[in-house]
Every structure is written in C-alpha cells, then in structure tokens.
Amino acid sequence: MRRTRILVAAFSLAAGLLAGTPPAVAATASAPPLTAEAYTWKNARIDGGGFVPGIVFNRTEKNLAYARTDIGGAYRWQQATKTWTPLLDSVGWTEWGHTGVVSLASDPVQPDKVYAAVGTYTNSWDPTDGAVLRSADRGATWQKTDLPFKLGGNMPGRGMGERLAVDPNRNSVLYLGAPSGKGLWRSTDSGVTWSQVTSFPNPGNYRQDPSDTSGYASDNQGIVWVTFDESTGTSGSATKTLYVGVADKDNAVYRSTDAGVTWTRLAGQPTGYLAHKGVLDAVNGYLYLAYSDTGGPYDGGKGRLFRYATATGTWTDISPVAEADTYYGFSGLTVDRQHPSTLMATAYSSWWPDTQLFRSTDGGATWTKAWDYTSYPNRANRYTMDVSSSPWLTFGANPSPPEQTPKLGWMTEALEIDPFDSARMMYGTGATVYGTEDLTKWDSGGQFSLKPMVRGLEETAVNDLAAPPSGGAQLFSALGDIGGFRHTDLTSVPSMMYTSPTFTSTTSLDFAESDPNTVVRVGDLDSGPHIAFSTDNGATWFAGQDPSGVSGGGTVAAAADGSRFVWSPAGTGVRHTTGFGTSWAESAGIPAGAIVESDRVDAKTFYGFKSGRFYVSSDGGATFTASPATGLPSGDSVRFKALPGAKGDVWLAGGAADGAYGLWHSTDGGASFTKVPGVEQADTVGFGRAAPGASYQTLYTSAKIGGVRGIFRSTDKGASWTRINDDAHQWGWTGAAITGDPRVYGRVYVSTNGRGVVYGDISGTGDTGGGTDPAPGPTGACTVSYKITHQWADGFQADVTLANTGSSAWNGWSLTWSFADGQKVTQMWNAGYTQSGATVTARNVSWNGTVEAGSSVSFGFTGSRSGTTNSRPASFKLGDRTCTVA
What we know:
Elements: E1 34-36, E2 39-43, E3 54-57, E4 65-68, E5 74-78, E6 83-86, E7 101-106, E8 114-118, E9 131-135, E10 143-146, E11 164-166, E12 174-177, E13 184-187, E14 195-196, E15 223-228, E16 242-246, E17 253-256, E18 264-265, E19 274-281, E20 286-292, E21 303-309, E22 315-317, E23 333-335, E24 343-346, E25 357-360, E26 368-369, E27 371-373, E28 379-381, E29 383-385, E30 415-417, E31 425-428, E32 433-436, H1 441-444, E33 448-452, E34 462-466, E35 475-479, E36 486-487, E37 505-512, E38 515-524, E39 531-534, E40 542-543, E41 552-558, E42 564-570, E43 575-578, E44 585-586, E45 595-598, E46 606-610, E47 613-617, E48 625-626, E49 638-642, E50 650-655, E51 661-666, E52 674-675, E53 679-682, E54 686-688, E55 698-705, E56 708-714, E57 721-723, E58 738-740, E59 748-750, E60 758-762, E61 782-792, E62 795-804, E63 810-811, E64 814-818, E65 824-829, E66 832-836, E67 839-843, E68 850-851, E69 856-864, E70 877-878, E71 881-882, E72 884-885
Parallel strand pairs: 1-57, 29-33, 61-72
Antiparallel strand pairs: 2-60, 3-4, 4-5, 5-6, 7-8, 8-9, 9-10, 11-12, 12-13, 13-14, 15-16, 16-17, 17-18, 19-20, 20-21, 21-22, 23-24, 24-25, 25-26, 27-28, 30-31, 31-32, 32-33, 34-35, 35-36, 37-38, 38-39, 39-40, 41-42, 42-43, 43-44, 45-46, 46-47, 47-48, 49-50, 50-51, 51-52, 53-55, 54-55, 55-56, ...
Protein name: Cellulose binding domain-containing protein
Organism: Streptomyces eurythermus
Family: Belongs to the glycosyl hydrolase 74 family.
C-alpha cells in the first residue's frame, strides 16, 4: 500500500464559484450549438479506496454522522440504508482543491447545520485559498466563505483534529485552527465571517521535513484541534473554557477560561510530542490527549496517552504500554458518552504487523487490546472481521503470522464511539471505514464483529479508464493507491483489485481493439515488474519483464490485434515488443516520456505526443516520425485517442490557459490536425456507442464550451455539444480520463481525483432517479421553501426544502406541485420525480425517506422554460395535505 495519495498538478486554473454556471447556455457566434440533457449519475462501486481521517457524530441527534476524506469530499451517514451520501459533488473545476476536507463540525444546537473547512494543499499545487463551507440542510446545499490562506486536506498532519469546532452553548461561535503559521480564527456569526484571534500566542512550529523545497512536507502544521468544555457555559452564552492543540512539541496544549479572550499554556504538560487529539469528558472533568512524536498520518515512532484533570491541573500518564515498547504514535481517541469512563485509542502508525485498538473502562487506569500475542507469532483477536461486502480489502495477500488478512488497518486516526449507542463504533483507515454494532462484547469476553461501513463513500483517484466492446468486463480502471479493478457489474464491488503483480498505482491501461481478451496495464511498484498482461479479458494477469531503467508505469498501448505493445515507462525511453514483453527494443524517433496510444484498426500503427509534437509509427513502434502538424499544445497536459473502426482518426485534447488549449481532430493519422471550433478548453476525450441513426461514434469530453465547464457529449463529430452533467454533479477535477461505453448509447465513465469512477446514463422519460413510492402519505404539518437559485434564457435551477413541522416522523414522502408557465423538470437530485403536464411529483430516494419531527429534507432540480415568466408554484401538497409555503 503506497503511503502517499495522488497529487494533482496545477493546470493554471482560474478561481471560480462553488456553484458553476447554469447547465444550459445560449450559443455564441464562435461556439457550436450547446444544449443540456438530464443524466442519472452513479459510482461504479468500489466502496472506499482512500484515507478517511475524520468521523464526526452529532452530540445531540441520534444517527447523524459525517465523514471527511483527504481528497474526496465529505459524506453524511444514512442510517436507514447504512450508507454514506456524498456532499461536495457540486465543487467545480476551478476550485477542485475544495474537495479536500481538513475538518468537519456538526452543530450540536441546530443539527441541520454542518460546517466544512476545505482546501487540499497549502503549497502551490492548489491554485485557490481555503474556505469554510456552511450548510443549513445537512450538506445538501452549501454557502461559502473564502479564507485569506490555504488549507491542507491532503497535507501532512491531516489526521489530527478536529480543527473546526462549534461552541455547544452559543452555536453562532466557531473556531478554526489554521496551518502555515496563520494561527487561530473565530467566527461569531455562524461561519459567515472570520477573523484571527490575535491574542492566541502560538501558531505552531512543527514541520515534517523543513528541507522540502516543494512546501509540502515543510509547511508548519499549525493549530490542529479545538475542544470546548461545555460545562463552563450556559445555553446562549459563549463557553468559558476551551482547549486548543498546537503543532509544537514543547507547547502542544493551550487553554482559555474567558471565552477566548486570553490564553495560557497548560502547565506541566508532556513535551517531545504532538497532541493529535484532545477529547474532553465534561462529566468527570478530564481532558484526554493522544500524543505522537510526528504529525502523521504515515509516520510516528513513539507515543503516549495522557489524562488532564481540568479542576486540579493534574497530569496522569495513562498509556497502555511503556514508551520503550511503542514503535507507533497514538491518534484515534474517543470517549463513550453513555459511559464516560470508557475510552478507546489507536496506534495509528503501527503498519506491521497491524494497527492496534486499545480500550479502557476505568478512565485509562487499565487497558485491553483488540489483539495480543499468545505465543509469538500467533495472535488472539477480540474481534471477528467480515469483508465480504468489500472482498478486495484482503489485497490478495497471504501473509505469514503475525500478519493477518484483512488487516485491522493502517493510518487509523479517526475513531468514534456513537454518543447514543455504546455498542456502535466506527474508525477510518487508509482504505475504508470499519465499524461494529456489538462493541460491548469486548468487555464481556466475547468477540465483537467488524465489517466495512463504507458503502456510498467512494474515494479513489482515477488515472485511466477503458471500456471494451465485448467480453465479460464492462470497465477497466487504473487507480491510484489500490491499482484498479475489472468491473463486470457496475453495481457490485469487484472481488479483487488487479494482482500478479499488484501495483500500488496503475498509471495506464489498454486492450486490443479487435481482441479485447488481450489487456495490458502499467503502474508503480516499490520492487518488481511495472507491466502486466491478461489474455482473458482482465480476469487473470501475468507479469511482463521490465527493460532496464524503468522506475514507474508511464503509458502503454496495445496493438489493435494484440500482437505487440508500445510502452513509454518512467525512467527510460519508449520501448516496443512483440508478444508479451519478454524482451523490449528501443523505439527510435520519439522522446522519452512521450504519451503513447495505438491506432484502433491498423495493428502496426502507433502514436505518441510530447511537448507539442505528434509522432507516428507505422512499423509497430520500432520507429516514429514527428508529424508536421503545428498549433498543438506546447506542454504535456494532453490526452489523445484514436477512434475505433476508422484508421488514422485521432482526437486530441489538452493545453493550458496561457497557450493553445482545446480539442483537435485528425483524419489522416496525425499528419494534420483541425481545432474544433468553440471548444475553449478540453482535457479528455473518449468515444462511445453511436447515437440511434448515427454512423459516427459519440464523443465525450471534460471541457469548457460556450463558457461552461462540464462533461459534454457530441453525436455529430463535434459540430454541436450537449452538457450532460449539472451544477450539482461536478466532482472537482475530471481531467484524467473519460470514455463512453461502446455497448450502451449515452453511457459515459468519468474519472475523478478522489470521488472514484462516476458513470452517467441518460435519464429516461419520467425517470424516478432512484425514487421509491413512499408509504401512505405522512401525517402532520409541513412547510415548503422553494427558491430559484439560477436562471437563464431557457432554463433555471431551484432548491426545495420540505420541513416536517408536525409531531411524528415521516417514513417516506411525496411532494406535488404544478407549474403555471410551462416549466419542465430536466433533472432532479436528492429526490426522484415524475411529471405529467404541469404537475410534478417529487419522491424520497432510498436514503432520505425518514424525516423526523422538526427536521427537514432538501432536494434540487434544473428545469426548462419558455418565455420570460418563471412563476413559483402557488401551493404544495404532501400526499393529500397542503403545506405552508415559506
């Protein structure tokens, strides 16, 4: 398992808004015709696949929980289905860094409110500053306040926290700990505005590696957590006492007893460590702290657990093992709110043989472990583990004791006992979220059961995608950190990632167009071959042999008939081979590091691109000749593909804002290219099944067309384009790969940098979007808020909030209204819908049918309209009950 996440290069992106431009924009004189079509979007299921550094339970509402990821956004738990719902898919291209979440806070006074501190990198890799997002509908919609500094959701130390906190007595007050020496910040208006707490004395000084010139490991990790002592305040008044953790080994914890006016370093505190977590038990008056000698999430060689008595100032070392016996730091830390003397902690950086969970029921006086040695190397476990829902979590390993598969995990910095249920606990790892619902068996001598609690949380970074025209595989993916998968069913988790060999990250893959049983992939591996082949459509694999000098995967291309391959690995020049890579010969006429692809008809024709030049080989990759084509992008942010079924038909996308940027087409094998008019920017290109009645395959691209950034489809060779995503489905950066499905018209697979493989299908007439018929109409009062959020010449976007103002919960809901001006719903999210004439009925989807009394549910939609009038509906009915209109 590689210990770094994918780092997306900065592509000179300009700053923009969280919500993008409306999904349909009138064509301009220089742009091709542009329309929009409703699509239904889902994930090709992998379930997890990345680091989950934070899990947050609301302290006042049962079953309300959130998870944050380092590059893949935030999620809300859905108790009815035991799944996670993504909350930040609306983050757009220009602010892709806001998919990195450094902290979350769920409001304990008004549980509908949730806050997210977002930003992926504090160095130059991230083009925008950080922001605090605030939501009044549990993350269904957001408002944003930009900050004057960057935040680092994917930076070192990201597992510490939470850096963002809501005052439990006066919930309009929030605190945010900043990195990079920016100090402590406070909002007194529910996150709308922020100012620095100038009286706070220490902005931190710990840097993982001060010599790192990139600014990544050398950044000051700053203020790392904020914890309130709720017992020192009353409802409506600011909490008097709060504690702040600082990345400073000599001065790690500070306290204020006057609501943040003045601050003092806690006397007598341990030194030589960083306090990863500070969890306060107000009932017994203890602040518990988890310490490590480094900031994590990968490193850490020593650690301690301490208890601080808030009344007396007494420090007690409650570590479960002697310091000399630690080879890891502590980070995950939680208190059972039902039984506050029960606490748990994790050895987050114990990579071998496994992570460790510790549990105490007496305030840390004594501890037990999740596993222990009987006689080395044999282990006795207090748990059972069932990963049948995510079988790839075994990583195809067959380790020797004391290692086991699946592991309890690694990078286990998030650990929470449900504050309403002592038997439920969740913790995050570098690959998934594990949980249990019978945790208390630990104390009775039984075995508690662990299983993945991660469905709906998709956190892979996608490098390449390929959809073969035949065979059992629907989709091949090349992924960061966990290699990639062969999907035979998009709705099911594959049994295993690619193995034999298992790459840490797969960088490129291809199949033979006329023989899709032949597949090749290349990737990164600490030791071993960097190329693998399959002759059974990716079901099984065997390793090839590296030529001398290979240090990484690079790109690879398979001949149309599978007879030969061209490989451009990292570390050496382009190579070619016949057969399956038992020997390689150097390719002439093409520079090292070139991107390579194959013609999809002529088995001896291959193409390459490097630094503005296109290269062509007609002898199986032995020699390449530079094309005379000019005007192509000068850099290497380019992706190109040859069209199946037509020799020499090549499409090229890429560029940068300060030079040539767009989409180009060649019909003569790259000898010349024509820039497609009206495509202002394009970063990927792919092909799928032709539209009914069309002879040319459908084009797909992640691009900017008509001033709109989005995912586009063309059924007429780029003469006109249809935007098929919308403002609610943008997924940050989607520039790595795209492909249509050669078997299903309209289906497209989109890469994301942290939200997994997203695929879309054309929404059918009367599509319910996954909605289900509710139980007989809910009873009780209801209130509806209808807000038009965007409006343009022939369309609009609206948000609807439906509140249960009655006295009993709804188990399913159905809301009906009528349009007065001929409006038509084109796509709806967070609800299914039908429309008959002017009448629209929106229904709950699987995860939001239960609405407790006093709670609300929100959904949104885009619609078309004609004329200048766009009246709001005059009335709404919940079943047969008329709702109050707010």
